[in-house]
Amino acid sequence: MPALFSLRRRAGDGAAAGSGRERTVYVNAPVPGDAFERGRPPQYAPNQIRTAKYTVLSFVPKCLLEEFRRAANVYFLFLLILQFIPAVATGLPGLSSLALFTIIVLTMIKDGYEDSKRSASDREANRAPATVLGRGWVNANKPPAHVLRPRGPMRLLWSDSGAGGSVGGAVPAAELPAAAAAGTATDARLDGDIGLGSDEWAATEWRHIHVGDIVLLRDGDSVPADLLLLASSAEDGACFVETKNLDGETNLKAKAAPACTAHLTSPRRLVAFRCAIEAEPPNTQLYSFKGAIRALPPGLVYADAGAERDPLSADNLLLRGSTLRNTQWVVGVAVFTGNETKIMMNAGDTPSKRSRIERMMNRQVVSQFCLLFVLCLLTAVLAGIYYARPSSFQALFIMAFETSKAGREPPLYGFLTFWTSLILYQTVVPISLYVTIEFVKLIQAYFIAQDIDMYHAPTDTRCKPRAFNLSDDLGQVEYIFSDKTGTLTQNVMEFRQCTIRGKIYGEIVASGDDDDDDTATDGPRRADELRRAMDARIAQIFANPYRQSETTTFLDTALYDDLGSDSTQARAIIEFFTVLAVCHSVVTGEPDPADPGRIEYKAQSPDEAALVSTARDVGFVFVRRDRDRVHCSFLGQPQVYQQLASLEFTSARKRMSVIVRRDDGRIMLLCKGADSVIMERIRPNQDRLRQATLDDLEMFANHGLRTLCLGYRLLDEAEYAAWRADYDRALASLGDREAEVEAVCDRIERQLQLIGGTAIEDKLQDGVPATIAQLALAGIKLWVLTGDKTETAINIGYSCNLLNNDMQLVVVAAADAASTRDQLERALAEFGDAHADLSYSGGGGGALAGVPAKSPGAWRRLIRRTHNDAGGSNGDRARRRGGVKGIWDDIRTRNVPAERRAGLRVRHDAPLALVIDGGSLKFALEPELAPLLLELAVRCQSVLCCRVSPLQKALVVRLVKDGLGTLCLAVGDGANDVSMIQEADVGVGISGVEGSQAVMASDYAIAQFRFLQKLLLVHGRWSYLRITSMILNFFYKNVVFTISLFWFQIYCQWSVANMFDYTLITLYNVLFTSLPPGVLGVLDQDLPAVVGAVVPQLYKRGIYKLEYSMARFWMYIADGVYQSAVIAFLVLYTYYFSAAAQRNGLDSASLDDVGTVGAFCVILATNLYMAMNNRTWTWIMPLALVIGIGLLLGVFFVYGVIYDTEFSSGAATRVFAQIDSWFLMLLTAVACLLPHFVVKFVRSAWYPTDTDVVREIVHGFRSKRHCRRFQLRATEHGMGVLEYATTSPHKEVPFGAIPDHQPRASRRRPSLGPHHAMDGAIPLRDFSATRPSAASSTPPTPAKPAADALNRPGLYQGIRYPERDTALVNYLHQLAHAGAASPFGDGGNILKRLSMRQQERSAARPGAHRGAEAGLSTTGGSAPGAGLARAPSHASARTSIYFLDDGSVQPHTGYAFAHESRPSPGHHHHPGPRWAR
After folding, report:
1. Model pTM?
2. How far is 572 from 669, CA to CA, in rounded Å?
């Protein structure tokens, strides 16, 4: 686990000497002499960044280092060196070096091309324009230009980063003139105006900004460095920034300048102001900053006790990567630059990723080395023994023909023979395999890029593979880590419905992007009708020039019917929308002169923007803020409210309130928040309204909408004045300020009048829920890592199918390490025994996955071990566990009626979902607690991490990747996701609205989250199958060729003679057998594309490593050894006993003839073998076979016949003229391939895998004759095509089964009874089985996929297929998602039943463990309804949320407030919003 935190240490690498230390930045003041080191001022990181892996100087050495991480490349480099030693050389060194040189050069070109894209992105960022204070202004923290420039040869490599921009003047104070040291301004500058566009400011580039520079930003500018805000265009020094590149949130965040600098609104004041800024060391905490500013009066040179010290917090810091919004200009001083900025500290180094198969192939290459060593050792020892015999062939031959070797001692001869045989047997490790892999992956990447199903027309974006070597990893992903905002959601909130005084308003109309075929036009048409009707009703009552009818989503004319009446309901409607229009922190954008009635709202949350926008469209318009005045227009009448106080939202309060004074002098408190909080604060005698509102909110929440309650109360002057005095004292408290402020606020937020509630929909990207459901069926676990609040993340989890009402949510929220440990242990104590490890490495894959399930008590041993490591005592553990007993003592459900409380309980048997916030995660990722977090997380179906920083995202990915040894994929769209994307095995960037940082750092770039479905389930699965098949066949063919040479040594007394001509050895991998494995790697596919998406359970074979393992590798090696023996001995003995003769009468059994026939047999057998392993036959594979064999014939005849050279001594003219040679080739091929064919037939007939059965279904539907025969026989048995195919006597064993060699009696047909105790292993069982009625003998009609924009004939989940396969797609969808009638009478899905049977057989073996994998049940999508009818609900369908910190259980409210304000310690909070001060 210590490796988990190397990223945290690495984040600061590369920074200058100033990194890791507190710093003092001097503005218009000289740097003290004691701050200089060896005559140089403090060194800070330049603002030039580099995310590229290589530079001009490091490209070659780094690439060579990467290449020689491959064991095979090191081996061939060693062989190349041997070729230059005459005593052991057997060939031409130049020819041997060509292959290695080609591999390295091609790979370097590919890596250089990929990295050039990152370099281009770096140049674009570094050369972005910036504006700094100019006209000779001197930055006291920046060395002069002559100090920056190096001397000598290094000057040629010097980058001018930081040399431009401001003037450097970092010299000791003693060397400065007296006027400069005193801070007297000597130049005439503008005063009273910031001077936008004047020569007071100098244009520069981001890379030239230095610590201490004063930077000017305009509205819409990106922040180039971490700046301390000095002043802004607002009088109080406030501004708003957008931080979507930092935390993924598009809402605005308010920043404030320190009180002592807010007046610096002109260049003259900036030059005259002298201060020293003390800052903490650079760190990764986005939401934390500690520092102080000391204003230096004239005459005071250094910051000493005489200077006033004002504290600084994160509210005063503008972070690099954020964007200035709704503020004309701001001025700030650079505190952190370059790699010391918080966003760069959170971004790790660009990694060099290798696929899992490539890493595993290294182990296989090492095993081949071992085999090679054994072959060479045997050859050397036996050669030495034969050489020691005086009458042996070796001794006589060497004495006569190789006199240079004569007289050697047998040990020396054996030693040299070892190295010679190493060269002879070198083909056992195929060097051309790497070239073929690179070529195949390049073509696979091209296919992915050209896939029209992953093309996003609105943005004209295709899938872009940026790393060509990871395509096979896409087929083995077990964990996906996803960002939320912009990745799963569009971050668009739509106000749908509301309840006012017990009456529901709002008609839900289906939108055009997700309708089925029947409502594709009816939904938008109905919405247009309602909008026109509402516009007409508004025109009859009042004029609303601010209404934006084309975008409003709240549609109901009944609202204006009630509003136009003189009734209590009309007054309630006015009160309701008054709260929405006034109780918020929204600001308005700059008005458009061409359209003054169009108001755009900028909110700290899209929730609040939706609420205020809906109030505007209804007629209650928030116009603008003017300091503490809120200007509104209600029903066409202007209204002005004076905002007296704003009680902001926090996660503990779950509510927001404002206190305002009306024009008539009355004081009102307006409040909105979660229903569980508001209901317990309403005044008595509102039981009927309370009950009706709860019923409505319950219905809204059950339909996936986010809810909140509204209330208000009137205050008299005396009560407000007394409260205000207490509130001011609490704000000024130096003790527990937050607790005191909360207590004062809680006192006044009582006796509320309940008005009603709202329902908001968070718009997801198209196809997100279906994609997540499909990935879950494929065995992929999804974790959401977001910077949003806990409530927001939970709501999105429900919207996108990550969470459902059957789950038990467990929330970890702790303030320190001890509390975090407490809560993790409590969760394991309560849920550890009831929930098994769901990961593959923990045995969650079942028996067929080959990994035994973990013992149920593993978590107990882990807790004991962590306590022993931490030094905890038994008494401590007893006290911690004692807290579990009282979980019912503090159930905060007083607002929930008694009949509903039964649903709010901790369900220990329900699937788990873990929710943990960033504060708790900070402690949970420490080495002593990380195992506890991982042990709990792997037992959960879903995990949500909230309020996490970019670095925490990367650490979570590393925790799972290293802790479980599994393959992880990370997907995100913003700069805050870069570190997570780089840390994952596969990084996917979504090209959205948040810039290109995530895309540039990713391995694959897509436009929509739903494209992951085809990228993984189709392309990933295909690539995995293709690459594994190609590699295994490549090793096989080289073993056949090499071991044939070894068998031949028996008949030449181990003299290391070549059975084949050296030209054949050289061209064997290059020409004769290169195309078939390449065709396997590029074009082979077991099933059509759409089938991989319809039956996602097939993907699990990649997770379980069933297609590529050491066992399968050695099976291919054994097959190769067998075939080499057949070829060598059959050819040798055939010629030995042959009576054939040449035309001249001589015996034909010569070495050249034997080698020629043997080479033909090897090439013919290996090519046919690889063709047999092809799953889909097209014209390309036969063409590859013809080309390979044709090239062999061409080489023989061109060089052996036409040119009559010494090539094989003319063996071709003799061999091909004899009929027995042709017969021998045919016999050898049959003898080699027949066992393999029989094994394949037996396995597919008696032990079929999941893929085999689905292939049979596809074949049955596509073959008319085959389908008619199946349907005829199936009808006779009263079952469907698949049921007949899979219940026939030759289909006893289920899919994916490895033969277990049990006695014949165990393979008899089982009884047709229920199998209640079976657990599926290769799990086509993650769906609900439909039990047919006992009275009905006809199977149910197969369910079809829900028709919408992504599902229609010819399109399934956005994946195209021929419309003739519509019946096949519907049938497979029914089998994989809904269940089918079974002749077993148990209603089980047929795929589920067959998978379970082998699980039962495997689990019945002694010592076998059964997996406890829990599948997610999926529900079919239904068409959106026209509206929601209210009916009293007595049983809560909400999920209960179990809070581990206090053991309480709360209902899921569905609403998450916008901005969570966390006062920083020591930072004074002024009453009311900043713009109201």
Report:
1. 0.72
2. 16
